[in-house]
Specification:
single chain, 446 residues, three-stranded parallel β-sheet, binds glutamic acid
Length: 446
């Protein structure tokens, strides 16, 4: 059987850091074992599912370098879920229930108060034909539950190793609603069977689902696929992901100027034994990928790592690539020399505007030491500027005055650029040009 994985987002929101990581790990694992990839759209929640979210998810995945051979959507497969439900009903593994949410919550409260675990009491299972008829006459429709067997479910998790789940602690899961909408627990298993999925990798928050779904696969006569559960992501101090990070969408990251290969470099290594390093493309990540490197410990997500990787990403970007991207933000007049001079100093691509302005636009100079600057004006070399000008200019200022080292460099930098950091001045000076340099040193906005 062909190796096949799937990523199954619900289009009820945009892709965020957490599910982007699940998608990426699925993809890297899939490609590292030469498998096929499927995108399954879990859109059975008609009210909350939006076409717009689906489109965003797809384009965000492509942005990260993730592509797939097959697509399917749950909303077109309702008949398959009903067929599976009938099969389960015939074999005595699906049963009808009528409790309302309020009744169920009262039952749970009573169980908790008498010290019992709040597990569904299977009242629906003991209903007889006449009870069902009575409910039908009252116009009540049933929802359906899957009858778990009260044993231990054991599986060899691709990430967590041997997992054991005591099913007595679980309520029989609801698998179909009154209105005929399937619940994810059933729909996902039916899909995974029909799509011949061989490996499922998803977040640790699905462990309980997996235990129930393993029984579902078996009840439908199929051996479950291999399962792997990724540890969840926490903030840099180990705290739960903050609201901002937890819901940070890829769209927002893009807007902040983050490069996709900075994000994928981080997400691919999160929770693994590998150090975080910048890896330029998805092929490099695939080559490095090994599910064995993932640990059960919570993975720490630190924005600082992401910013650092972003810097590296921009440093490694070729001029041709940069130009393609700069055109999109109307900065297509940037030449190769300028790119090579400033790219090492950019935290994100948009920042190039700032240095472009320093060289070709107008800035308000910061003169923090008039005396020093006056000497600098007097000693400014009267020759064509090149990359040696800065060095020889500073040297002569130091030898003819008491100003030297950092104090000298920073004061000049602030006067010439209005910043106390930035690209090498030896390269900037010839680009800024003599006229502008002298004007700025005199304190003019220029
Ligand atoms: N739509 C489900 C989710 O987003 C899919 C989970 C799974 O991979 O089975 O949580």
């Amino acid at each position: 059987m062909k190796t096949r994985l799937r990523f199954a987002p619900s289009p009820t929101g945009n892709l965020h850091v957490g599910n982007a990581r699940t998608a990426l790990v699925n993809y890297l694992f899939c490609r590292s074992i030469s498998g096929e990839m499927m995108l399954r759209i879990d859109d059975t929640d008609e009210e909350r599912s939006k076409k717009e979210f689906e489109e965003n998810i797809k384009s965000d995945l492509n942005w990260m370098g993730i592509f797939w051979e097959m697509t399917d959507r749950q909303s077109t497969r309702i008949k398959n879920y009903n067929d599976a439900l009938n099969k389960l009903f015939e074999s005595g593994r699906a049963y009808r229930c009528y409790e309302t949410q309020e009744e169920l919550s009262l039952k749970r409260k009573a169980q908790l108060m008498s010290g019992k675990p709040p597990v569904y009491d299977r009242q629906g299972l003991s209903l007889e034909q006449k009870d069902h008829e009575k409910f039908a006459n009252e116009g009540k429709l049933p929802h359906w539950r899957f009858k778990l067997t009260d044993d231990e479910v054991v599986w060899d998790d691709l990430i967590r190793g041997k997992c054991t789940y005591d099913m007595r602690s679980l309520s029989d899961p609801v698998i179909m609603r009154e209105d005929g909408r399937p619940i994810y627990t059933l729909a996902s298993v039916v899909d995974d069977i029909d799509h011949e999925i061989t490996h499922i990798i998803r977040g640790e928050d699905h462990v309980t689902n997996s235990a129930a779904q393993i029984q579902l696969f078996k009840a439908l006569g199929i051996q479950p696929p291999s399962l792997g559960h990724l540890s969840l992501i926490a903030g840099s101090e180990g705290e739960g992901l903050s609201k901002r990070l937890g819901s940070l969408s890829l769209g927002q990251l893009k807007q902040e100027g983050l490069e996709s290969n900075a994000l994928t470099s981080l997400l691919a290594k999160l929770g693994t034994s590998d150090p975080i390093s910048f890896i330029e493309n998805i092929e490099g990540l695939i080559k490095d990928f090994d599910l064995k490197k993932f640990s059960r410990n919570t993975a720490k997500f630190d924005m600082k790592d992401l910013y650092l990787l972003n810097k590296k990403s921009i440093q490694s970007m070729s001029y041709q690539e940069a130009l393609k991207r700069l055109k999109l933000i109307d900065l297509d007049n940037i030449n190769e020399e300028f790119w090579n001079t400033v790219s090492g100093n950019l935290n994100n691509l948009k920042e190039i505007k700032l240095w472009w302005n320093v060289v070709f636009g107008e800035i308000k100079p910061i003169i923090d030491n008039r005396n020093l600057i006056d000497i600098a004006i007097k000693l400014f070399p009267n020759e064509t500027l090149d990359q040696t000008t800065w060095g020889s200019w500073c040297k002569i200022i130091s030898s003819e005055s008491d100003f030297k080292g950092k104090e000298l460099f920073i004061s000049l930098r602030k006067a010439l650029t209005s910043y106390d950091y930035g690209p090498e001045l030896s390269k900037l000076l010839p680009m800024i040009g003599k006229e502008k340099i002298l004007s700025r040193l005199s304190g003019n906005v220029s």
